Amino acid sequence: CRSCLVKYLEENNTCPTCRIVIHQSHPLQYIGHDRTMQDIVYKLVPGLQEAEMKKQREFYHKLGMEVPGDIKGETCSTKQHLDSHRNGETKTDENLNKETSEEKQEEDNDYHRSDEQVSICLECNSSKLRGLKRKWIRCSAQATVLHLKKFIAKKLNLSSFNELDILCNEEILGKDHTLKFVVVTRWRFK
Description:
The structure is a single chain. By secondary structure, this protein is mainly α. The protein folds into two domains: 2-63, Zinc/RING finger domain, C3HC4 (zinc finger) (Herpes Virus-1); 117-187, Roll (Ubiquitin-like (UB roll)), CATH 3.10.20. It is 42% helix and 7% strand. It contains seven helices and four strands; from the N terminus they run H-H-H-H-H-E-E-H-E-E-H. The strands form two sheets. Strands 1-2 form a two-stranded antiparallel ribbon. Strands 3-4 form a two-stranded antiparallel sheet. Strand 3 (167-168) and strand 4 form a beta hairpin.
């Protein structure tokens, strides 16, 4: 798990399994969240995602903060479902299945619109590449630098996104960094 890796990498700069050096001085910056693996784990372990969301909500509630990704005025469907059970309300299986399928369809069409958003200005520093027609984009703070590279490569009709480097304040960004991480650690000016 991530917390075990972080603890290990505070003292070491190698992979705990194969002992290959991750990075000489900053190994923590080179580990990334594997969303695909997380989705697989959530699908294999019943109730895990709901339990994680509940723990996250309780954590932020204790701190008196808003839960990231929540739209003001809306609450998580899981939380509503849990609250209705706590209040002694019972629903028929038919109504529950109908609500669940509607919520699933709504979630599937969300496309991360309810995530925290980041606005970015993409400027080209190379004379070899042409600039984009629209240089401002707004996307989820959970998007990674790799997502941006693929988007730009597609827009510029490049054969490979590996030909691109994305910089912020003259620093090359790691492909696994989320835009939220870049905002917090690299942007010096709003």
